[in-house]
């Protein structure tokens, strides 16, 4: 069953002079199995939105259900795995094993069941078994983020919710996380991620939710998003749109470097062919 938000509003510092409406009358439905990107400018309300999914925050008005249940119920907490931006802030155990085992043990699973889940999560997060005895804080940023991912995956969640999971990582770390998420999604887990990094995430997103000043200003498929005016696009897509607006017949709905290169070369060839044909025709009229 999906995550359903109906007429949700969230305020901070309610009934004080500092009151802020972080979310205003939000309606949203996230189906199982989707890879969803939550986009929007700083302060738009993205983090507030995802904190509703596992009951970390309660709405001031409206209704939210996860698999038909209240998100603050224990059952939902184990179905929604959360991973925050700074991996170092959420790792607090002495070893990687203890870190990944924390969730299952906390939810009352036996030592044996927990061990099985740790190994499974380790593999899903593309981590080596030799890492299990290491201090999580001795790992690279990308590895720490994957340990945090494995910790969330050890509960076998239906939904994996991430807040800016590649921010601050080096290019290799970013690539590792993106590839790991692709694999996890392929195994059936719904992934919902807040991101500013359209360059890295855009090719993975199946559905996009754009938030503007606490309201949803767009929700739909990536294709629909790309056909929408005035939305943030990855750099390659912006360039293709610009070329198209200058009358160059490239497909503006392209967003990877490889596709863009192919498209530009195709148009270049077409232009050269047209030019050669024109010159040939001119020569024939001269004769
Ligand atoms: N604990 C809080 N107390 C008061 N105001 C808050 C609190 N958390 C967030 N806000 C405010 O609520 C609004 C939405 O914040 P939120 O963190 O959800 O935005 P965001 O889109 O995730 O931003 P960012 O991209 O900067 O993380 C902002 O105006 C923010 O300043």
From TrEMBL:
One example of the protein's molecular function in GO is:
ATPase-coupled transmembrane transporter activity
Q: What do the Gene Ontology cellular component annotations say?
A: ATP-binding cassette (ABC) transporter complex
Residues folding into a coiled coil are 257-286
Which InterPro entries does UniProt cross-reference here? AAA+_ATPase, ABC_transporter-like_ATP-bd, ABC_transporter-like_CS, ABC_transpr_CbiO/EcfA_su, ECF_ABC_transporter_ATP-bd, P-loop_NTPase
Cellular compartments annotated: Cell membrane
Q: How does it sit in the membrane?
A: Peripheral membrane protein
Give the protein's function: Probably part of an ABC transporter complex. Responsible for energy coupling to the transport system.
What protein name applies here? ABC transporter ATP-binding protein
